[in-house]
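Raw record, unedited: LysR family transcriptional regulator
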Amino acid sequence: MRDRFSEIQSFLKIVEAGSLSEGARRLGLSLAATSRRLTQLETRLGVPLIRRNSRHLTLTDEGAIFFDKAGRALAELDDAEAAVMRTATDASGLLRVVTTIAFGRRRLAPLLHHYAMLHPEVEVHLETAEQAGNIVESGHDIAICFDPQPDSTLIMKRLADNPRVLCASPTYLHRRGRPQHATDLADHDMIVVGSGAQDLWRGIDMGGAAPKRMLSTNDGELARLWAIDGAGVVIKSLWDVSEDLTAGRLETLLPAVSLPASRIAALYLPAQGDTAKVRSCLGFLAKHLGVDSANGRALHAD
């Protein structure tokens, strides 16, 4: 294949140069090597492409057809290479991102909208799912996940911490009272989101006691709605309830209680990290995908 390409390239250079000697000079080859390539090409094709004499080279009919079609083919190949090489330096093309439903709607969608306005050559496609699945199988460029498990086939980039808070609605607190100490939680109803939340509750020092579990679910949005409806105390990610805290639908409890933050991370294939669209998006998200824990408001992209 390499010899075939070299033969075609040599033929085109000879015709463009107008002579074997000038074609050889432009190719950086000897006159003998250049002539040999032309002969090999004509032998492989089974027709003469160039009529030679001591002063001039002229194309045969077959040579004219081959020069036109081969020339256009190599030009398109050059364009293809240039287009692919630009993806390493210029953010462009389709960028496919997948994340969880609630996070996609509440946090990632506005940020990716802003990113798309800053990078008009990038077409952003955001998908949401219960779990950000296998990006190799799904064909996504980036998966935004929470505490993802290590995967030897993927690169993991930490984007931000994900602080958690204890919160409840004003109606619940009016009915049951506001806990003043961690031990007071034993007298309250808890809403548990997923199996991991049980470990979070067990990590709170309640003096050996445990709160009463009233409701549990694997749906974070459902747990949030239960809490707003006054069903009990819930542990939620700050990004998920920041608007509810600002609007007064929920209130934070026991800020002195330390709850471990989870990690928001991006997963992507090693080769994808070399493309400008992925690099620029990850850099943008790492800069802006934060939460102002002092006042409970999501940071705005600037």
